[in-house]
Amino acid sequence: MLVSEWYSPIVVMRQPGTEMDPLVYEDMTLADLRVAVDYFISYGNESVHALDIRGINLKSNVKGVRINCEGDQKLKAKKFVTVTVPRDHAVFLATSGPVEITRLIGCPLHVRKYPADLRWKSNADEYGYERYENQIVTYLHINADPRSQQWGRAPREWDSPGSVFVVRQDGKDIWPKQVEALFKFVHSRLEPLFKDSIGEGDVDRTKQEVIDYMTTKKNYETFFERYCHGSTADPSHAEIEFYMMDRFA
After folding, report:
1. 242 and 221 Cβ atoms separated by less than 8 Å
2. Extended strands (E) in the chain
3. Which of 138, 115, 157 shows the shortest CA–CA distance to 29?
4. Are 144 and 104 in contact (CB under 8 A)?
């Protein structure tokens, strides 16, 4: 049952990108239907809202980050691009919740795929078979549920997901440098631990040890302090806090 009253037939269309009023809409897919259902379930009900809307102007915007896949990068797009997302965008209403790794490490993010650009979508000869690849997004979706048989591996749907955008669950802005640093942490620190835990690394490690590492604030502080040293000899506290993104606050 819908939590708000809706009357008469309802037409639902696919919204490409993050613009408030795009000039063109697209045909729906089954995945889009799931988003529409999430929206109707969540509309007007704070108890199931993924974003705490109390005191927030839903007509305002939040800064997110587009992460471009190989195909879009070959069209001269940068890897990370700041995008403006309405605070009432359906990405905040997803009942599926944030990406598990980002939740565990203290900065839950929601991710939404972009439709493939028609210029490279069906043109493997020119743009390569790796045109859908987006390694950063794949790493962020490594399964971190210790009860799952897929622990330590990304689901197939996120193996070559194309371009996506990410937003913070709390509705605060997120910036390209923060997303890049987050990826480096996952890639250089967490992926080796996951490999150890599934018998593909150099050390015998339990799943719980991996989770304990992800949920320990000191590990982030140490990593991002060293990360900041890569760009400046004496990083300030503010610089380190920028990359910490209010973790464990």
Report:
1. no
2. 61-67, 80-86, 109-113, 164-168
3. 115
4. yes
- Please, which pLDDT band fits residue 124 given cuts at 50, 70 and 90? confident
Tokens, residue 105: 């490490």
Q: What's the mean pLDDT when you consider all of the chain?
A: 79
What is the DSSP track for 50-97? SS--TT--TTSEEEEEEE--HHHHTTT--SEEEEEEETT-GGGG-TT-
In degrees and rounded to multiples of 5, residue 209 shows phi and psi of -65, -40
The pTM score is 0.73
Encoded tokens for 154: 């990304």
Burial 122-152, CB ≥16 within 10 A → b, else e: eeeeebeeebbbbebbbbbbbbbeeeeeebb
Helices 217-229 and 176-185 pack at an angle, to 10 degrees, of 110
Q: In what order do the strands lie in the sheet with 109-113?
A: 80-86, 61-67, 164-168, 109-113
The CB-side HSE value for 113 (13 A sphere, CA atoms) comes to 19
**CA–CA separation, 79 and 240 (whole Å):** 23
Interior CA angle at 176 toward 175 and 179, to 5°? Answer: 90
pLDDT in tens, 141-163: 999 999 999 999 999 999 989 99
pLDDT at 153: 93
SS3 198: coil
Do the Cβ atoms of 142 and 153 come closer than 8 Å?
yes
Residues 164-218: tens digit of each pLDDT: 999 998 888 999 989 998 999 999 999 999 999 999 998 999 999 999 999 998 8
